[in-house]
Amino acid sequence: MDVTGQAFEDMQEQNIRLMQQLREKDDANFKLMSERIKSNQIHKLLKEEKEELQTNCSLLKTQSMPQLQVVRKLEEKERLLRAPSAPQRESWHFEHKLWTCHKRQGGHLQTQEEDREGKKPAEKISNGDDILNEEINDYRFVPVMNKTC
């Protein structure tokens, strides 16, 4: 009987250890399941947030497209307005050419007059500038002609 009692005690101790191991495994499984549920919930929330952000982003893109097109058109208009047109460049070129021509002619007349009188009259030089400015202003209202000095 001692042997049977010892075997019975050994079986009870083994059952107690197995039951303890089973509880520990159940606790570990419970923790894993609760963590999995939490991670699934977090994943679901993040997925919903991602979808919401994607819809917001697409809405913003569709709203910004017309605004971007308007900005591009305005920038193009500004660029065109800032750049001088071909007729303006021709007009400026002709005015500059006319001015240099008159300046040269004025210089020749001035040197001839200086030779005669021996000095520069300040009044006559300023009058020459006035005449030149009048001719340039008159030119702006007259069609461009192909003249050279």
Which keywords apply here?
149 residues, mainly alpha, 2 domains, 3 helices, rod-shaped, E3 ubiquitin-protein ligase BRE1B
Write a compact overview of the structure shown:
This is E3 ubiquitin-protein ligase BRE1B. This protein has 149 residues and is mainly α.
Overall geometry = rod-shaped
Mean pLDDT, rounded to whole units? 80
Secondary structure tally, helices: 3
Task: Return the string of H and E elements.
Answer: HHH
Stretches with pLDDT under 50, minimum 5 residues? none
Percentage of residues in strands = under 5%
What summary fits the major beta sheet?
none
First-residue to last-residue Cα separation: 143 Å
The whole-angstrom Rg is 50 Å
**What helical percentage do the residues reach?**
over 70%
Structural class, by secondary structure, is mainly alpha
- Overall domain count: 2
Beta-strand segment tally:
0
Commentary on this structure:
This protein has 149 residues and is an all-alpha fold. The chain has 2 domains: 1-83; 86-149, no CATH class. Helices cover 89% and strands 0% of the residues. It contains 3 helices and no strands. The protein has helices at residues 2-82, 86-117, 122-140. α2 (86-117) runs antiparallel to α3. The longest helix is centred in the first third of the chain and has 81 residues, at 2-82. It is rod-shaped and about 155 Å long. The protein starts with a helix and ends in a 9-residue tail after the last helix. This is E3 ubiquitin-protein ligase BRE1B. It comes from Nibea albiflora.
